[in-house]
Amino acid sequence: MNKKLLFTVAAIPVAFVVPAVAVAGAEEVATIKITGQPVVNETLEASIEDIGKQIIKGYQWYYLETAKTGDDTGTPTKKPISGATTKSFIVPPDAAGKTVMVEATAEGGTVFKSDTRIINQLKLAITEPKLDGYSTSNFVAPGEIIKVGGANVTDTAGAKLKNDQITYSYQWFYQEGEALTAIDGAKGATYTIPSNALDKKMINIAVKVTAKVGAALVVSDISNMLTVSNEPSNTLITAIEALRINDSKYNVTTFEAFKETVTAVDSQYQALTAPAKANVKNYDVLKRALTDVEAVSALSNKVNEVDKVADKDMAKYLKDIEEAYDKFDLLQRSLDVGDELFNSIKGILKAPTDVADIAEVRKINQAITALLKYDNFLVKYEAHNIAALKASIEAIEKDIANVSKNYQSTVQDRILNEAKQDIKKIEQFIKLFDKLGTSNTPNKQVTAAKSIRTAYEKLTYKQQKLVPEEYNTKLLEAENAEESQIERLNNEIESYLDDYSYPINPSEQTWQDHVKNVNRIIAEYKSLTKTSAAKIIGYEGITQLQKDLKTADKIIKQIKAYDDLLKVTGVKESKLQSSYNNALKAYNKLTSLQQSLVYNEDLLLNNPPKVTVDDKGKEPADKAAAEALKADIAKFADLTKYSFTELETAVNTATTAYKNLSSAARKHVTNYHLLTAASKDVKAVISFHKKVQAAREEMDVAKQAKKIESVEKAYAKLPANQQHLAKEQYQSLLDNRPGDNNAPDITSLNNSIGKIVSNDLYTVTVDEIKTLSTQYKNLSTSDKKLVTNYSILKTAETDVKKVESFMNQYNKSFGSNPTTVIKAFAKLTAKQMSLVSEEVRQKIIEAEKGQQGSNETAFGLVESIDTLLQGGVYTVDLQAKVTSIREAYDKLSSSEKSVVKNYSKLTQAEADLKKVAEVHALYEAIPAENGDTARKAWQTAFAKLSKKLEILYTDMYKDDK
């Protein structure tokens, strides 16, 4: 350890190395000095500079107290100060006036002690308490809470006291005469004035404060006296009462002075505490005055700013002003001294320029009516195109804008609005033509045209007439984009088809060209729209040709294979015979049409294989008969030379002859397969003849038709040889089928349907469309497919339903409410309109024209109604005028009533008359004696009248006072 170093720690008892100058042991040596001021809250410190080289373990501060009794009387004793065990010591308030010392204990047990220091006594002073928390100086209201302020404590001897070292206690008093009486339990820093304080004569209230710091006490003087009184509230109540003369009138000379008074009174009220405010029982009067002053001020400001309002907003702005003042009751209007505000409002409420405006409206309505013209009992626009119609509309709307807003609503704008909607509709319709791109295929052209045509047919007659002709032309061209293709396909199909053979004579060189051509025709057909495809004739035949080409191609290849085999040397006869028989059998199964496609049949029919018969040296006796039979059977190679009866006989004869031959001879009949094939053909034709006979014998016409249709299908499937053999009876059946007078004439029906529309209008009546519809519904499913114009009929059926619905509305409502019917008629498409009879169309047109003329009566009423109220004041003799107008209005039709756009002014006048009459009835009910209550009720009701109604009442009931 370096003993030259000195360590001193004041906070904890650890060892310190100091120069040693004292003797070890418990001996006390007074070598410590105390530094610092002996004042409360100052810091004293033990100085160990003079104790030598020592290690100090700890410190202890003591109070020196002198015993007052016993043997030790007068002898000072040490009392350890709790917690004072460090080198420094902050003097607490409890140490004031006491003697203190400190001891330091070294490691060896040596105790070093200090001299003593006497702490200065506290000399406390306290300022006079001040009372806070009440409304106004020197007065406090019952219920208010008073709190102590001031009473600041200091030490005149110089100690710096802390707030948490000071303890306060309080006592509240009330004055009785010159004496003060302590209030029981009133010992807090606040005191709530009892609500019954005035009743208990607790008039003057004060408080005394005692402060303690350590053992020192100080008592304040009595605070200032507060007087318990309702005086602040009472004064305010009186001031509020002075705001009104009575319940219907404020005490006002000028509005601004009244506003200042109300503001001042409200400031006094707001300064009160909550308990004091609660004593102001008439605060609602002040609150109402504040609200009324604000309302009048706001309306006055709005009137003053009228010059800043834009023209487009002026009508609503003035209406709001008028309505706001109209809501003022008599009390509020009493703030309008000399009716200054009322007269200002009258000045800015300009009366409608009735004569000029109505004249302008009439002129505008005539211009609107002139937008239309009538064509064959149908309405269209006078303008021939959208641009011209737009120009007319813009001119009309410019004129409307010049009419006052009060009268703009009387313009008969239905036609005008419809015209604007129609323009928009046509502009949208024209955009549909963007679908018709020049690079589109005919199919896409027709498809796009179909959707455009659908949209076109939904247009009304007026709208259709606005469509520029160039677009109608484009639409027709697009719709007919496939016509040339249809004509070409029909010609090509016709060149390929015939009843019994295909007239194309194919060859090995042309075969593939025909196959590709037929495939192309079918592909083009499939690319057509449904409507165009329905115009193709013979499509089923061309698809059958496509199948027959595939079938014939197989046979052609079989025949070629046989022919190639013939040219090969050394081929067995059996192999040649088998190839030949298979090819011939397949060929004979073909229909006449299919056989007409086999261009190499000669290689098969004219070139049978040679067959050698080996008798093995034993020639049969009936060989000659076999050779003869072989020659007869050879004729069966061409059955077209036989009739059915001839073939049947020949086959039977040959069959018998064959059976009579010996087994050896039969080998020489090498063409026996021809007999077998002919025999099968005969049997098949016999079976077919039975179907023919069944059809002949059927007596029911409809059933016979179905059986004949079945025979036709069966015949078409027969191989060529069988078709030849069966043709006689088959043709006889067809030629001699009985006529069906009830059978539908599909061609005639289809043509009739195609003619029902011309120039986008129907050329027939509703009943005629219904007749065509019935005829179509009676067709069989297969016959319906033949009616290519069905889409026209289907649209017509839908239009008929629309028109019938309209006619129901017409019959029900036209007499009582023609406007509704006119609007419904305008919504019909052009074609639908054409189904409405000319008589009905003419009546609708006349009704629409008549409405414009009949509006004159309604316009007269509009003028009369507007005269009822001028500048916010009702006209003289209002009751009589309202009664007259009401009688005239009730005689108007529904459509005419709709013209009276200011009808609400009439109903308002009627309501105001009723309200005024109800108030007058209260006056009439006032008895001659003891009528105060009834009069009060009348006065209250009268006070609630608006200025407008007050003037009306005064005018109507001049004697009511």
The computed structural class is alpha+beta
Structure annotation, total helices: 39
Q: Give the overall form.
A: elongated
Question: What fraction of the residues are assigned to beta strands by DSSP?
Answer: 5-15%
Helix content: 40-55%
Oligomer status: single chain
Summarize the structure in words.
It is a single chain. The protein is of the alpha+beta class and 961 residues long. The strands form eight sheets. Strands 1, 2, 3, 4, 5, 6, 7 and 8 form an eight-stranded mixed beta sheet that branches. Strands 11, 14, 15, 17, 18 and 19 form a six-stranded mixed beta sheet that branches. It has a three-stranded antiparallel beta sheet with strand order 10-12-16, with no helix packed on it. A hairpin with a 2-residue loop joins strand 22 and strand 23 (378-381). Helix 2 (255-271) packs across helix 4 (283-304), helix 22 packs antiparallel against helix 23 (644-660) and helix 35 crosses helix 37 (903-924).
Give the tags.
961 residues, alpha+beta, six-stranded mixed sheet, 39 helices, 12% strand, elongated
Nutshell version of this structure?
With 961 residues, the protein is α+β, with helices and mostly antiparallel strands. The protein has 39 helices and 27 strands.
Topology:
Blueprint: E1 28-35, E2 43-47, E3 56-66, E4 76-80, E5 88-90, E6 99-106, E7 111-114, E8 117-118, E9 124-126, E10 129-132, E11 139-140, E12 145-150, E13 153-155, E14 166-176, E15 179-182, E16 190-192, E17 204-213, E18 216-219, E19 226-228, H1 231-241, E20 244-246, E21 249-250, H2 255-271, H3 274-278, H4 283-304, H5 311-326, H6 330-333, H7 340-348, H8 354-369, E22 372-375, E23 378-381, H9 386-401, H10 405-408, H11 414-431, H12 442-457, H13 461-464, H14 469-479, H15 483-496, H16 511-527, H17 530-533, H18 539-566, H19 573-588, H20 592-595, H21 602-605, H22 623-634, H23 644-660, H24 663-666, H25 672-697, H26 701-717, H27 720-735, H28 746-754, E24 757-758, E25 761-762, H29 766-777, H30 781-784, H31 790-813, H32 818-826, H33 830-835, H34 838-866, E26 869-870, E27 873-874, H35 878-890, H36 894-897, H37 903-924, H38 932-943, H39 947-956
Parallel strand pairs: 1-7, 11-19
Antiparallel strand pairs: 1-2, 2-5, 3-4, 3-6, 6-7, 6-8, 9-13, 10-12, 12-16, 14-15, 14-17, 17-18, 17-19, 20-21, 22-23, 24-25, 26-27
Helix pairs in contact: 1-2, 2-4, 8-9, 8-34, 9-11, 12-14, 16-18, 18-19, 22-23, 23-25, 25-26, 25-27, 26-27, 29-31, 31-32, 32-34, 34-35, 35-37, 37-38, 37-39
